[in-house]
Amino acid sequence: MIKPVRYSENNKNDILKRTSGSTADYEEGVKKIISDVRSRGDEALKEYTIKFDGVKLDDLRVSPQEFDEAEGIVGSDYKAMLQRATENIATFHRAQLRQGFEIKGNGFILGQKVTPLESAGLYVPGGKAAYPSTVLMNAVPAKIAGVNRIVMVTPPLQNGKIKPEVLVAAKIAGVSEVYKVGGAQAIAALAYGTESIKKVNKITGPGNIYVAAAKKLVYGDCGIDMIAGPSEILIIADGDADAENVAADLLSQAEHDELATAVLITNSMDLAQNVCAALENRLKNLARRAIAQASIKNNCKVIVTDDLERAVQLSDELAPEHLELAVKEPFELLKKVRNAGSVFLGYNTPEPVGDYYAGPNHTLPTGGTAKFSSPLGVEDFIKTTQYIYYTREKLRESADDIVMFANSEGLTAHAQSVSVRIEK
C-alpha cells in the first residue's frame, strides 16, 4: 500500500525524482529501422508490420470502403459525441490563430508573414489502446492552421483494419489519407517518404518509446512537435477535496502504462491517508488493473506539505504534464503556477475533461519539459517568415552603424555590401 510522506528538505530529491523517459537505449535499433525504410520503402514497412503487429498487408492505405465500413459499425450517438468534442476543440484552437504584422517608418518596412505548413503527419498510437481523441487533438489544429495535406499513420488491429472509432474521428476531423503502419517505421516513412507515403514537413502525435526515439532521430530532416515521455499527473489538493475523487484522478493516468506517474501533494495528512486507502480499494475493480497497479507501485507518491504554497513550489520543479488544483480557491493558486502542461481547476474538473472534450489540447509536454515547452496547438502547424524593406535614404542613414557592427565581427564583406551602395 502507498503511504504518505511528509515533505522535508532531506527527502526533496526523492520527491522530485521521476521515471526516465530517455530514448538512448533504443536509438541504435531504431536507427536500423529508419535506414531500412529509407532504402526499401513499402517493402520494409510491410515486413515490419508482420514482425511487430502480426499482420500481413497488401495495401497500406485505408480505402474509402474501410471508412464507410467504420461508419456503419460506430453508432450515431458515438458520432454525435465526436462532433461535439470536435467543435469544442475547434473553438479553443481558433482563438490561437494569429496574423502577420508590419511596422512602417520613414524609409523602411519591417514585417512578418504567417504561413501554414504544406503537410503534416499525425501519429496515432495503437497497441494497448487506440485513441480517437488523439486524432482530433492533432488534426483539428492542423486544419485550423490551414495545412494542405494531413496524413495519419496508426498500427493496424490483428484483423488488418483500423479501429472503427479512430477512422470515424479522422473523417470528422477531415483526414482522408490514413495508413496502417505504426512504430518507428511509420515515423521513418513520414520523414523520408516511401512509394505509398509521401514525406511530410512535420510529425506530431505521441507514441511509445520507439516512436519517441524515431522522432528524435529524424528531427532536422523534418519537424516534430515534441518527444513525449510517459504520461503523468500531479494533483494539489486541500483538506476539503474528496479522497475518492482524487484517487480516481490519480488512476486515470496510472492506467495509461506501467511507466506513468501519479503524484498527490496536499496540506492535509487526513486526506493523504484517505487517498492511499481509496487507491487500494479502487485498484481491485479496475479494468486495466495490472498496468495501473504497476504504475502506482513504482511511480506514485503521496506527499504532505505544511501549506499549499510549498505544494506549488514542488509542482513547479516537477513541471507536470497534467496539474489538477483540487482546492477551494483554484484561480488564486493558478496565479502562482509557472510550469505545467495543462491545469485543471477546482473539485469538478478531472483530467479526462481535457483529454477528451473541453477543447484545450491533450498533447502536452512531459518529463519536466513544461518548463520550456507548450501544449500542441495551431502554432505547431504554422511558420513565420520575416521581411525587411529599406529605401536608399534609410540605408544611407543606417550605413555607419551597420558597417561598424560588421567590422567589429571581422566580417568585412558584410560591411562592404552596405558601403558599396553608399559609395555609388
Automatic annotation (TrEMBL):
<dbReference type="GO" id="GO:0000105">
    <property type="term" value="P:L-histidine biosynthetic process"/>
</dbReference>
<dbReference type="GO" id="GO:0051287">
    <property type="term" value="F:NAD binding"/>
</dbReference>
<feature type="binding site">
    <location>
        <position position="355"/>
    </location>
    <ligand>
        <name>Zn(2+)</name>
    </ligand>
</feature>
<dbReference type="InterPro" id="IPR001692">
    <property type="entry name" value="Histidinol_DH_CS"/>
</dbReference>
<feature type="active site" description="Proton acceptor">
    <location>
        <position position="322"/>
    </location>
</feature>
<dbReference type="Pfam" id="PF00815">
    <property type="entry name" value="Histidinol_dh"/>
</dbReference>
<keyword id="KW-0479">Metal-binding</keyword>
<dbReference type="GO" id="GO:0004399">
    <property type="term" value="F:histidinol dehydrogenase activity"/>
</dbReference>
<feature type="binding site">
    <location>
        <position position="256"/>
    </location>
    <ligand>
        <name>substrate</name>
    </ligand>
</feature>
<dbReference type="InterPro" id="IPR022695">
    <property type="entry name" value="Histidinol_DH_monofunct"/>
</dbReference>
<dbReference type="GO" id="GO:0005829">
    <property type="term" value="C:cytosol"/>
</dbReference>
<feature type="binding site">
    <location>
        <position position="253"/>
    </location>
    <ligand>
        <name>substrate</name>
    </ligand>
</feature>
<keyword id="KW-0368">Histidine biosynthesis</keyword>
<feature type="binding site">
    <location>
        <position position="355"/>
    </location>
    <ligand>
        <name>substrate</name>
    </ligand>
</feature>
<feature type="binding site">
    <location>
        <position position="185"/>
    </location>
    <ligand>
        <name>NAD(+)</name>
    </ligand>
</feature>
<feature type="binding site">
    <location>
        <position position="414"/>
    </location>
    <ligand>
        <name>substrate</name>
    </ligand>
</feature>
<feature type="binding site">
    <location>
        <position position="123"/>
    </location>
    <ligand>
        <name>NAD(+)</name>
    </ligand>
</feature>
<feature type="binding site">
    <location>
        <position position="256"/>
    </location>
    <ligand>
        <name>Zn(2+)</name>
    </ligand>
</feature>
<feature type="binding site">
    <location>
        <position position="253"/>
    </location>
    <ligand>
        <name>Zn(2+)</name>
    </ligand>
</feature>
<keyword id="KW-0862">Zinc</keyword>
<protein>
    <recommendedName>
        <fullName>Histidinol dehydrogenase</fullName>
        <ecNumber>1.1.1.23</ecNumber>
    </recommendedName>
</protein>
<feature type="binding site">
    <location>
        <position position="322"/>
    </location>
    <ligand>
        <name>substrate</name>
    </ligand>
</feature>
<feature type="binding site">
    <location>
        <position position="231"/>
    </location>
    <ligand>
        <name>substrate</name>
    </ligand>
</feature>
<feature type="binding site">
    <location>
        <position position="409"/>
    </location>
    <ligand>
        <name>substrate</name>
    </ligand>
</feature>
<comment type="similarity">
    <text>Belongs to the histidinol dehydrogenase family.</text>
</comment>
<feature type="binding site">
    <location>
        <position position="208"/>
    </location>
    <ligand>
        <name>NAD(+)</name>
    </ligand>
</feature>
<comment type="function">
    <text>Catalyzes the sequential NAD-dependent oxidations of L-histidinol to L-histidinaldehyde and then to L-histidine.</text>
</comment>
<feature type="active site" description="Proton acceptor">
    <location>
        <position position="321"/>
    </location>
</feature>
<dbReference type="InterPro" id="IPR012131">
    <property type="entry name" value="Hstdl_DH"/>
</dbReference>
<feature type="binding site">
    <location>
        <position position="414"/>
    </location>
    <ligand>
        <name>Zn(2+)</name>
    </ligand>
</feature>
<keyword id="KW-0520">NAD</keyword>
<keyword id="KW-0028">Amino-acid biosynthesis</keyword>
<dbReference type="InterPro" id="IPR016161">
    <property type="entry name" value="Ald_DH/histidinol_DH"/>
</dbReference>
<keyword id="KW-0560">Oxidoreductase</keyword>
<dbReference type="GO" id="GO:0008270">
    <property type="term" value="F:zinc ion binding"/>
</dbReference>
<comment type="pathway">
    <text>Amino-acid biosynthesis; L-histidine biosynthesis; L-histidine from 5-phospho-alpha-D-ribose 1-diphosphate: step 9/9.</text>
</comment>
